[in-house]
Description:
Helix content is 73%, strand content 0%. It is mainly alpha-helical. Helix 4 (60-74) packs antiparallel against helix 5 (80-89) and helix 7 (110-126) packs antiparallel against helix 8 (130-137). The longest helix is centred in the C-terminal third of the chain and has 29 residues, at 204-232. Residues 225-233 have low confidence and may be disordered.
Amino acid sequence: MSLPKTLAEDVSRNLVMVARLIDEDPEQAYAYSRIALRLASRVAAVREAAGFAAYATQKYSEALAEFRAAKRMTGSVELWPVMADCERGLGRPERALAMAGEPEVQKLDKAGQVEMRLVAAGARRDMGQLDAAIVTLQSSELASNAVHPWTARLRYAYADALLAAGREDEAREWFGKALEADKDGSTDASDRLAEMDGVEFVDALDEDEDGDENDENDEDDGDDEDKGRTSEA
Length: 233
């Protein structure tokens, strides 16, 4: 609303493309975010979108700078967990852990606090502290039977940490619980369970290609045999 109408429309179109492409083509989403940033760098929504586009392309230093700018503009702490995860991406897990203990965390909503817990556990794992990562994830949210948008990811992270610690039976149980809560396929819990049970999936397309190759080889062998009989004759 702070921009002239024509400029606002141009910026909006670019932000829409960022949102549409960020999962399937993050590099292209990043390119659109740079256009929006060039047009309206003083708009918080633009800085936030640019941050997420940079984050999706693993440009963590750039993402962190954009998130910090958006936070200064809005005064909101909702980006705190992803900012901490950028610190992890930059190889600074100790900074992510420090952020997990800052007062900003108490201002986050429940989803944000769970996200911060996931980041903190990831930082513990980065530092080789598997048992501490497991303890970090143990919470009332994990123990609850209620299903929220973040439930599957929390249970999955817990299962993955258990598996990394060699606690396979518990990990299988929690991968199963993650799968129960994963209504939109946000995790690969089903694949992890199958992998633990020794199940291998074969792509039907690959099978067809192998079959075609075998047929071609059979035909080639037949031709070679005919050629051999002809020369003998």
